Protein 1
Amino acid sequence: MRRRHTLMDSPIGPLTLVAADSALSGVFMTDHRHMPAPETFGTRSDDPFPDVIAQLDAYFRGELREFDLPLHMAGTEFQRLVWGALLTIPYGETRSYGDLAQAIGRPGASRAVGLANGKNPISIVVPCHRVIGADGSLTGYGGGLANKQRLLALESANATAPEGTLF
């Protein structure tokens, strides 16, 4: 499997994009918790990323609500199950860890769901930022709580409008 990476500017700071062959396998923010060692990202190349960058730019402008990209989600079977469930959370909405555990048929696994959610390597595109505490509080986020809040605010501001921008 050939790995490549590039950097893109975004309203929440630089993003490192990683591809495994031609599929997106990572979107990492500066100081991202659980970020793999940079030497695992492969060579720097913009070749596999024009669609990713275009879709992320449209997302940040409030014009894109659902990504259409090939994804390579490398993780355990349980992590991939959780990450797949994240993809079903609609733009502008949130779910609790308990809701997500229920959705995957593991109602007692809220804590495990939280751990898997925190290790999601494809931030934003696989919307782990849409998962909150049972009481509605913003809980941990690999890219930092300030970025989680900004992403949720972006989606909230644009959820009912056809177009818009927050940043």
Note: Residues 88 and 127 are 9 Å apart (CA to CA).
Protein 2
Amino acid sequence: MIIDQQEFNVKGLTYSIRSAMEKDAEALSSLRLQMDGETEYMDREQGEGFIDPARFEQIIRLDSEKERNLFLVTIVKEQIVGYSRCEGVDLKRFSHKVEFGVCVAKEFWGYGIGKKLLELSIDWADTNGIEKMTLNVVGTNDKAMELYKRMGFEIEGTLKKDRRHAARYYDTVMMGRFRG
């Protein structure tokens, strides 16, 4: 699905959010690799699950065509600094929901970019008849969980010791939001 570009100004930073385009593939590949090394909150360590530009082009093309997928990018001064995806599945028993994921480069934390990506995704989901959005978050990411709760998500479950970073285990918190 495609949405129109929107402009925002927060704390003196002007940024835009729009649907991803195939021309974004190389920048997205580099950004994803960068962000995996910036925080413990990502599923991957830096370099794991690498997606090359050609694969990103395929993802963007499919997401643009599928009515139940949405791939958004955030741009500051012509540079992609964050992105989010909503991905549905083709199985009828799960056709009422999408899974949401978001990434923002650490340099741009604190400008409401993640929140704006989430708001636009929720608006898109509600407008397009999607009944449920799901997401997973590391149990120690209190700031993200607070945001998700404010946006109508609730905790649906916890996977204990679901991930291991070096020698320490972390829980994964599963959250969901039903269309209001």
Note: The radius of gyration is 16 Å.
Protein 3
Amino acid sequence: MRTRLLLGLSLFSTGLLAGAFGYGAANLVPTFHSVPIDMRLDFHSELMRMNGITVQGAMAVSALSALVLAALTRGRARVLAATAGLLTVASFLITRFGNVPINGRIKQWAATAPPADHAEFLSRWELFNDARTCTAAAAFVLLISVALRQAGRGTTEHH
């Protein structure tokens, strides 16, 4: 019962994370390209301020629940859950060391003016965003496979 609830929590939080990043990549980034740069910078700054708590929370719950699930399962389920947890940690690291520093620059630009090379930084932000979207989506797929394997067995694996 405990592993089923943990699997549910990890699926839910990782699905939210992958969905948030996927929505951003599919909808927000193209919208950023179609509005004037000052509007993009203002919106981007405000969006990142609002996203800070929710995205970090989803990453933390996703990583912790998947890693604890890995500790409570064995065999293939353990490997899949551990890999999902590590992929979520990778999403966090990409965000923290890739996107966040650029977000700080964007916030400064919104208050002043973007430098001549701003497009290079915005492109780099988008590459980091694509990378974290892929790691979060891969983690979600792995956890779905754990759930499908366990549903196929009719039970959960325990230590």
Note: The radius of gyration is 18 Å.
